[in-house]
Amino acid sequence: MTRPHELRLYAHRGSSAALPENTLEAFGQALADGANALETDVHRTRDGRWVVCHDPDGRRTAGRPERIADVDLAQVERWDVGRGLKIPTLEALLGAFPGVPVSVDLKPAAPSRVRSIIDLLERLGAEHRVTLASFHPRVLAAVRRLGWPGRTALGQLEVAALRFLPAGFARVLVRGHAAQVPRASGAIRLDGPRFIARCHRLGLRVDYWTVNDPEIARSLIARGATGIMSDDPALMADLFAAPR
Questions:
Q1: Taking the CB of residue 137, how many other CB atoms lie within 10 A of it?
Q2: What CA–CA distance (Å, rounded) separates 124 from 79?
Q3: Is 65 strand, coil or helix?
Q4: d(Cα 158, Cα 96) in Å, to the nearest integer?
Q5: What are residue 229's DSSP bridge partners?
Q6: Is the distance from CB of 51 to CB of 45 less than 8 angstroms?
Q7: 8-241 has which fold?
Q8: Residue 233 has pLDDT above 70, yes or no
Q9: Is the pLDDT of residue 208 over 70?
């Protein structure tokens, strides 16, 4: 099968099945395990630094109740997220793994913070390899309105347009570059061949999260998926290395 994009094995928060999630060590292990792309999440500290963390606070990962938005970077850097590992900045992540594609999920719901991350990524020259995503429609709209030159993931309404509207309407409404989706949202399936084919026709990547079963990954790739996001890339490495 000919795909419109390279096939990617994304490490979901790094090799998070093996090491504390969203740490430089987990990302490094993921690449050693066979991943060729990374997926992560970011929050902004009180002093304006973007750090790599899924949750808005440190309660689950570090046993710290403080919200990242309410503390400075120096405080976050003292948190132990397991095995003595620390929360890195987004800048440190991109610097540690140059050239690796990275999908960045913007967790804050405030569009006013978008300008600062665009400025950071442009200063780092990372536009060509970073895809910005968000579950917040206003944040994603701000990314595009402010002229982010890199790629964006589709918002929920764009995914719905792809799934339910005629192709002509979907083509007008969809502005992103990658459908990053689960296999299903409630009773609505997003892993059927027709949905994947429509993504292909519009020139979109279609990358599935979070898949930790190699057989499910194999089935999605056979249908035309361009990427799999997994907590355990080591389980998928043979599948991605095999001739297709």
A1: 14
A2: 26
A3: strand
A4: 33
A5: 10
A6: yes
A7: TIM Barrel (3.20.20)
A8: yes
A9: yes
Count of alpha carbons within 13 Å of 103, Cβ hemisphere only? 31
Question: Are 8 and 226 within 8 A, CB to CB?
Answer: yes
Bin 39: left if φ > 0, else alpha if -120 < ψ < 50, else beta. Answer: beta
Which residues have C-beta within 8 Å of that of residue 134, sequence separation ≥ 6? Answer: 105, 106, 107, 140, 143, 153, 155
Instruction: Determine which helix (DSSP H) or strand (DSSP E) holds 119, and give its type and residue range.
Output: helix 114-123
| Assessment of whether the complete model's pTM goes beyond 0.90 | yes
- Looking at the chain, the whole-number percentage of residues with pLDDT higher than 70 is 97
Angle at alpha carbon of residue 11, lines to 94 and 104, rounded to 5°: 50
For residue 210, is the peptide bond before it cis, meaning its omega torsion is within 30 degrees of 0? yes
Distance, in Å, from the CA atom of 11 to the CA atom of 14, rounded to the nearest integer, reads 5
pLDDT band for 5, please (50, 70, 90 cuts).
Answer: confident
* Site of tokens 């027709």: 194
Rounded CA-CA distance 224/178 in Å is: 14
